[in-house]
Amino acid sequence: MKNRHDTSTTEAPELLLENLRKLVTEAEKLIGEGGDNAEEALGGVRARFEQAKARMEDIYGVARKKVVSGARQADDAIRSHPYESLAIALGVGVLLGALIKRRE
């Protein structure tokens, strides 16, 4: 059974976003200061940004695969049980309609 609480995919986006914010802050500081070491430090920031970009692409790829897999499973379930799926959709529609009507 797969572990649904995989920390590499659930925590990584938040950590990546935090690291990107730090990179932006550091880059703004370097640009504002200028100096002799600015070019060298900016190169380090660029390298870290490229690593973060690659990690974000990996996360996007994993998320895309999961969405496509879920859509395929839903399609298979609907095709194998069309009447049950129709009854569930009708029930959800009636429930949403009642909730919306009640709000008004």
What's the number of helices? 4
* Number of DSSP strand runs: 0
Please report the distance between the alpha carbons of the first and last residues: 45 Å
Name the beta content range: under 5%
Tell me the count of domains. 1
Topology summary:
Blueprint: H1 7-10, H2 12-33, H3 38-80, H4 82-103
What this model shows, in words?
By secondary structure, the chain is mainly alpha-helical. The protein has one domain. The chain has four helices and no strands. The chain is elongated, with a radius of gyration of 24 Å. The two termini are 45 Å apart.
Summarize the structure.
The chain contains four helices and no strands.
Which descriptors apply to this entry?
single chain, 104 residues, mainly alpha, 4 helices, 88% helix, elongated, disordered N terminus
